[in-house]
Amino acid sequence: MSTITPRVRFAPSPTGYLHVGGLRTALYNYLFARRHGGTVILRIEDTDRGRYVEGAAEALAETLAWAGLHFDEGPALGGAHGPYVQSERSEIYAAHVARLLAEDKAYRCFCTPEELEASRQRQIAEKRDPAYDGRCRRLDAEDIQRRMADGLPFTVRLKVPRMGQLQLRDLIRGDIVVQYDTIDDQVLLKSDGFPTYHLANVVDDHLMEITHVIRGEEWLPSTPKHVLLYEFFGWDAPEFAHLPLLLNADRSKLSKRQGDVAVEDYRAKGFLPEALVNFVALLGWNPGDDRELFSRDELAQSFSLDRVSKAGAVFDVEKLKWFNAQYLRALPPARLADLCAPWLRAAGIDTDDTARAMQVTTAFANYLEVPADIAPHLGFLSPAPIVLASDAERAAIAAPEARRVLTAFATRAADIEPWNRETIKAMIKSVQTETGVKGKALFLPLRLALSGAEHGPDLGIIAELLGRARTLERIRAMRG
RNA sequence: GCACCCAUCGACUAGAGGCCUAGGUCGUCACCCUUUCACGGUGAAAACACGGGUUCGAAUCCCGUUGGGUGUACCA
């Protein structure tokens, strides 16, 4: 690897949301730059007018910021190599295309999409490999002039050598050799005047002085075209590092329809950026030891491209949940309360009373994978009176033993001090000693009286959160 | 079809010729803790795709097979 300080970039298309695979690519670029004291650039690749989504670029930047990935140069940040939005760089691409044309390294193609499609179909029917047949490659200058004078639309294609081979080096995969005759004459400039990814990417990476192209493996098959372009321009190509893909459970490329793929989806479900970043960082990379919990800074300390694996990684939400649970319980009480606030309010808790909100949420911190998990535990806090659902439950609480337990509990609960889960549990112990009732016969009546349910949080927690007054009130209600 | 990439437990992975009777984590199961649920603790089941080489010795190197993936657009 070179010793120069790296300049890397994350270059998403503004077509909607940030894909979790994109997040990981962005993260690896970010970590690589941080690790080596380099620069990360955000570049918006909006050369496809058809797929462009208004506001998507801003949303992308916002989501990246949420994830804690901060760039050094970019559309909103500025920098010496702008503009950082490709649609604002049209003249630059045009100039470079002109140069390729002048040097006979590219040619104009007047084939219409219909003609190309027909040709493709014919090739498939004849069981030949579909590829551009190169008919416009042979047009003479006169012909080209006439068609241009007629105002015929055209694209510009890369003039790939007919024979020979090309070798490229990938930091993750090693040396790769490709025969020229398997490479199509790629369109570089579309008939609408916008460049394709291949051209824009190479030109921008060069002009922005990118040293390492770290991107998804789906780009590996087109990398030879990019390398050829660098050669045609007479530029040194950057280092390439093609990351293994993120996969669905069936090992196909991670896609919508088989689960959530948008970072925004996970954010909305209450996944913490720390957890998502930590999880995604370990999908295709590992530190070489058994550590799994990493802060962003720790990742930046340890990250290295040569510990990136080659095989694709399945995105397993179960493990993500585990990470989230770890981070959730480590959160300061105020922040956890904040995240749980909607469900607290739904359960009738006044979240403006921050002490109360924190008391409730911290009681359940260990129960949560995502904040919404708190909801089912909050039922007993409802102000509605307890109504037992079954005859069995009513019978359980009407039993003579149960009456004695409730009475003894009420008496002692009136004056223990302070009122918290420990003292309450100790108090229940003494109720057991006093009444001689134990096990289910002891706890079930209390649980039913206080929460109306057979299952739920620890009785100490229930009584503590209910508070002494409401606890006594519920016991009284059950004793009739 | 063709090109390229890849191949260790269900999942993420450690492993760069002997340390491997293959380790860790998630998940699963069992037991313990516990009135219950969760947490936590302990433990278990669970993998080197296959076939040839090379070597005293292969999960590790080479070749082939098989399997999977990506690409094959005037999308990125």
Summarize the structure in words:
- The chain has helices at 20-35, 56-66, 90-102, 113-125, 141-149, 197-207, 223-233, 263-268, 273-281, 296-302, 317-329, 333-346, 354-364, 391-398, 400-413, 421-435, 440-451, 459-479; strands at 7-10, 39-42, 106-109, 155-158, 165-170, 174-179, 187-189, 212-216, 239-243, 246-247, 313-314.
- The protein is mostly helical.
- It binds one RNA strand of 76 nucleotides through helix 4, strand 6, helix 6, strand 11 and helix 11.
Which terms would index this structure?
9% strand; 3-stranded antiparallel sheet; elongated; RNA-binding; 11 strands; 18 helices; two-stranded parallel sheet
Structural topology:
Elements: E1 7-10, H1 20-35, E2 39-42, H2 56-66, H3 90-102, E3 106-109, H4 113-125, H5 141-149, E4 155-158, E5 165-170, E6 174-179, E7 187-189, H6 197-207, E8 212-216, H7 223-233, E9 239-243, E10 246-247, H8 263-268, H9 273-281, H10 296-302, E11 313-314, H11 317-329, H12 333-346, H13 354-364, H14 391-398, H15 400-413, H16 421-435, H17 440-451, H18 459-479
Parallel strand pairs: 1-2, 8-9, 10-11
Antiparallel strand pairs: 3-4, 4-7, 5-6
Helix pairs in contact: 1-10, 6-7, 9-11, 12-13, 15-16, 15-17, 15-18, 16-18, 17-18
The chain binds one RNA strand of 76 nucleotides through helix 4, strand 6, helix 6, strand 11 and helix 11.
The oligomeric state is: single chain
Share of residues in strands: 5-15%
Low-confidence stretches: none
Helical content stands at 40-55%
Widest β-sheet, arrangement of strands: 3-4-7
Indicate the structural class: mainly alpha
